[in-house]
Design goal:
globular, SHC Adaptor Protein, alpha/beta, Double Stranded RNA Binding Domain, 5-stranded mixed sheet
Length: about 250
């Protein structure tokens, strides 16, 4: 499998590739994303990553990272051949419409993107991201989730101080889960949120990975018994797993 990463820099846009991505595809990525940024008068640089390898079959994954008003934004899409870039460009265009006030903020699941959920044998955790969790209410967390084009977002709940997640789900569009407290947010909010009625379960990382794969879940929010902090385990496009946690998490177990 070809995993060599190649970068082509042009003013404002950097196109990176992994796997058998042609020069014509990279040139098209530069043109397409530059056109979207120009439409929204966005002058900050952007990075486009095109990934195609044996783990994806004939699928390409396109990811675009940029900045808007000083904050990081991101979109990601998959599809056959050049369709992945087209889908990513369309997502970026819609996202920038929301950020610039040309469209309403998103508050519903995306019917155009299926969750990465499938029953499988146990898969390894191949990526660990340790980050300083934002302290937010659910509305702010949902906005951050949309800006980064995530399906789920790990944060610290401003009301309780607990690790928590928001994710796109019915019936109100956004669902929230905390580690322990299951009552709805007490602070006034202009957006309705469905609250997960059960406390987050405790699992080791190995137990969480086994459960996610056995039940075909796209992600799993759990409390690690070693430090009682929240973890977010998720399925990657290649079928392996990634893990997001706060800064005080011990690693390497």
């Amino acid at each position: 499998m070809n995993t060599k990463r190649v970068a082509t820099m042009t003013p404002g846009v950097a196109v990176q590739s992994s796997g058998p991505i042609t020069a014509a595809e990279k040139s098209r990525a530069d043109r397409v994303i530059r056109r979207v940024l120009r439409r929204h008068h966005l002058e900050s640089p952007a990075t486009v990553r095109l990934t195609r390898n044996g783990s994806f079959g004939n699928t390409t994954v396109a990811e675009v990272n940029a900045r808007f008003a000083g904050n990081a934004i991101r979109v990601q899409a998959d599809g056959p051949g050049g369709f992945a870039l087209t889908f990513a460009a369309e997502r970026l265009d819609r996202q920038l419409d929301r950020l610039t006030g040309k469209a309403e903020p998103r508050w519903s699941p995306d019917p155009g993107r299926a969750p990465l959920a499938a029953v499988s044998d146990a898969r390894p955790i191949v990526r660990r991201k340790q980050c300083c969790l934002q302290v937010l209410d659910p509305v702010g967390a949902a906005a951050a989730m949309d800006a980064m084009d995530y399906d789920v977002h790990l944060f610290t709940d401003v009301e309780t101080g607990e690790d928590a997640i928001v994710y796109w789900a019915g019936p109100l569009g956004v669902r929230m889960a905390r580690q322990r407290r299951t009552r709805p947010p007490a602070s006034a909010t202009w957006r309705p949120v469905t609250m997960n009625p059960r406390p987050t379960r405790e699992f080791t990382e190995a137990e969480a990975a086994a459960r996610l794969c056995a039940y075909g879940l796209p992600f799993l929010f759990f409390t690690d018994p070693s430090d009682h902090r929240g973890r977010l385990l998720y399925r990657r496009y290649d079928g392996d797993l990634g893990l997001v946690a706060g800064p005080d998490v011990s690693r390497g177990r």
